């Protein structure tokens, strides 16, 4: 029997990369594993982004991230869903793991290099991010981690940390595996600059709860195959962002039509984007409607998070007790 864990940062509005890359798998695995699937809004991780140092904004985003997950179909009464800061055991385990992890390994993480490269002053927390992530997963002895492809290296490090702990203190943790949505490994940003990311800001993202009008404005301005200058030029869908999105939102006949017609200049980019917008609308409208309903009852979201934290702590308690004993902390 597997145990599933995954986390999502409250660093901004959830976007379609989060949805297709991770959140949809949370729902599918939640249906399969029930209370054996544990999901977390990782607000401690969000602090590694200096832009998140806004106390009111952090709380609001944590709340909204929970709401968005419920709106896409996660049922908090059937899975375990909570905010990371409500379960302090994550930090305790993280500290122990910090001492099993060479700094050099952390410095080699590509996410660290990418994010640190954009900062003038790099918080030590950003370097420790993958250690805390290993603690998040192993605190529940989870063996299955639904994530986007950008987290592959972090999951490998988690396995390494589990191995090191087991070697040093005796067999304790499983070596968890990542589970991907193979159709949405790394969704590109709508600005055409790399992965869609919350922390890159709204120019990069198509928000799950963003107004359809605003999404259309971004799609209209989005880059397509740069070699296709005129409407009459044949295009190459394989290098087109819009075609990547079609593969997520459109049905098979539409995807095939766009593929063929683009290559023989039978469809222009604007019409192709309009066709995409039909799929976007069909996918996002019900989610947005559900989010609006959930927003009417904020206390229910808070209650669900409080209950989720209780459930998470109950699962974590025996693990942290085992770790304390194995590490050799004095027992009173
Ligand atoms: P940030 O920029 O703050 O790191 P993010 O957009 O990368 O935010 P995270 O909270 O770091 O989102 O990641 C949540 C989950 O979404 C992870 O499993 C991650 O792998 C996945 N994910 C994030 N961006 C994408 C993407 N563009 N394509 C596919 N999966 C993604
Ligand atoms: Mg990220």
Automatic annotation (TrEMBL):
**Does Protein biosynthesis count among this protein's keywords?**
yes
Which residues bind L-tryptophan per the record?
136
**According to its UniProt record, which reaction does this protein catalyse?**
tRNA(Trp) + L-tryptophan + ATP = L-tryptophyl-tRNA(Trp) + AMP + diphosphate + H(+)
Q: Where is this motif: 'KMSKS' region?
A: 195-199
UniProt GO MF annotations: ligase activity
Q: Per the annotation, which location comes first and is thus the protein's main one?
A: cytoplasm
For the motif 'HIGH' region, give the residue ranges: 10-18
According to UniProt, the name of this protein is: Tryptophan--tRNA ligase
């Amino acid at each position: 029997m597997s145990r599933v864990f995954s986390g999502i940062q409250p660093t901004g509005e959830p976007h379609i990369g989060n949805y297709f890359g991770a959140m949809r798998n949370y729902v599918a695995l939640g249906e399969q594993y029930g209370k054996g699937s544990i999901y977390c809004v990782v607000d401690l991780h969000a602090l590694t982004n200096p832009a998140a140092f806004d106390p009111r904004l952090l709380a609001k985003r944590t709340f909204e991230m929970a709401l968005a997950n419920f709106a896409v179909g996660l049922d908090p009464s059937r899975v375990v869903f909570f905010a990371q800061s409500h379960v302090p055991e994550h930090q305790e385990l993280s500290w122990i793991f910090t001492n099993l992890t060479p700094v050099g390994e952390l410095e080699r993480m590509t996410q660290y290099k990418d994010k640190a490269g954009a900062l003038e002053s790099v918080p030590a927390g950003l370097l420790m991010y993958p250690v805390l992530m290993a603690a998040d997963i192993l605190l529940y002895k989870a063996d299955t981690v639904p994530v986007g492809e950008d987290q592959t290296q972090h999951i490998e490090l988690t396995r390494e940390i589990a191995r090191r702990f087991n070697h040093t203190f005796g067999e304790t943790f499983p070596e968890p595996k990542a589970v991907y949505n193979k159709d949405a490994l790394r969704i590109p940003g709508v600005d055409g600059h790399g992965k869609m990311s919350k922390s890159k800001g709204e120019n990069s993202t198509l928000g799950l709860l963003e107004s359809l009008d605003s999404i259309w404005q971004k799609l209209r301005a989005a880059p397509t195959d740069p070699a296709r200058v005129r409407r009459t030029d044949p295009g190459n869908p394989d290098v087109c962002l819009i075609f990547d999105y079609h593969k997520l939102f459109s049905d098979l006949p539409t995807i095939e039509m766009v593929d063929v017609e683009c290559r023989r200049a039978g469809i222009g980019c604007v019409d192709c984007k309009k066709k995409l917008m039909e799929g976007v609308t069909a996918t996002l409208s019900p989610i947005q409607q559900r989010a609006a309903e959930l927003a009417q009852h904020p206390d229910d979201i808070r209650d669900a998070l409080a209950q989720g934290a209780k459930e998470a702590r109950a699962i974590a308690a025996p693990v942290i007790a085992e770790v304390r004993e194995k590490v050799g902390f004095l027992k009173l």
